[in-house]
Amino acid sequence: MSRITMTDEWHNDFINGIFINKSRILKCIGIIITKEGVIFDDVCMIATYNTYDNDDPEKCEMDEVVLSKEFPGYPEELSYLSYKEFLNLIEHGLEVAISRFGETEKEEILNELEKATNVLLKNFQ
User: Fold this and answer.
1) pLDDT tens digits along 43-95
2) How far is CA 23 from CA 10, 29, 93, 106, 114, in A?
3) d(CA 121, CA 66)
4) Contact at 8 Å (CB) between 111 and 34?
5) Which regions of 1-104 does DSSP assign to beta strands (E)?
6) Which residues, in sequence order, are CB contacts of 64 under 8 Å at separation 6+?
């Protein structure tokens, strides 16, 4: 099955749409740690291997996440990323979003990001 990867602009718009508050940022980072997908709202979802049934044609590989965006009346848009690419996207989104938070919240977010980075490093050793 061919995997779709959208443009950098699409990815940036997607992550900026999710990064509207600390809770959503932490859920996004937590996907790397837990390998469990998250539904953010009626439009955006990030799915993992465990999200899909075995016979689902959209099922991703074990080392991938699927970014899903679907507006009513329009076809669903999917983008398949490796966990490393997903981490890079989160880091890029945080470059913009982190300035909106106080020091305590920034520290909490960055600690979770460090945990996620360590999980990925352990998986690739």
Assistant:
1) 899 999 988 888 888 888 889 999 999 988 888 899 999 999 999 999 999 99
2) 22, 10, 14, 12, 17
3) 20
4) no
5) 38-39, 44-48, 64-69, 77-82
6) 3, 48, 49, 80, 81, 82, 83
- Token pair belonging to 124: 């690739």
Cβ atoms of residues 93 and 15 within 8 Å: yes
Q: Which one-letter amino acid corresponds to residue 108?
A: E
Query: Per the structure block, which two tokens stand in for 9?
Result: 């602009």
For the cut 80, the answer to whether the pLDDT of residue 24 exceeds it is yes
Whole-model pTM: value is: 0.90
CA–CA gap between residue 72 and residue 99 (Å, rounded)? 32
